């Protein structure tokens, strides 16, 4: 067994945090950031037991400015 550092992206919807791993494509949720990440970790590990990955391509995260008209 090896370990790999994967990306987690979180956003809040109502009272839940949605956590996504774009490196693998798994998604989970929780009522706190910690719970959402723990659930995502479990979901990702279970997924990778059935569908092992070859080389993982890293996600690129950046920001940009957008004009917003109110």
Structural features, described:
- This protein has 70 residues and is of the alpha+beta class.
- It has one helix spanning 33-50; strands at 9-13, 16-21, 26-30.
- The protein has a three-stranded antiparallel sheet with strand order 1-2-3, covered by helices on one side.
- The longest helix is centred in the middle third of the chain and has 18 residues, at 33-50.
- The chain is flat, with a radius of gyration of 14 Å.
- It starts with 8 loop residues before the first strand and ends in a 20-residue tail after the last helix.
Distance between the termini: 52 Å
List low-pLDDT spans: none
Helical residue percent?
Answer: 25-40%
Number of helices: 1
**Strand content of the residues, in percent?**
15-25%
Strand order in the sheet with the most strands:
1-2-3
Q: Helix and strand succession? A: EEEH
Structural class label: alpha+beta
Broad shape: flat
Number of strands: 3
Please summarize the sheet with the most strands.
3 strands, antiparallel
- Based on CA atoms alone, the radius of gyration comes out at 14 Å
Name a few traits of the molecule.
23% strand; alpha+beta; 3 strands; 70 residues
């Amino acid at each position: 067994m090896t370990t790999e550092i994967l990306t987690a992206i979180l956003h809040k919807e109502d009272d839940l945090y949605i956590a996504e791993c774009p490196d693998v494509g798994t998604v989970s949720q929780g009522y706190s950031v910690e719970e959402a990440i723990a659930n995502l970790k479990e979901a990702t590990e279970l997924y990778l037991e059935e569908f092992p990955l070859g080389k993982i391509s890293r996600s690129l995260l950046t920001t940009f400015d957008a004009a917003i008209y109110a």
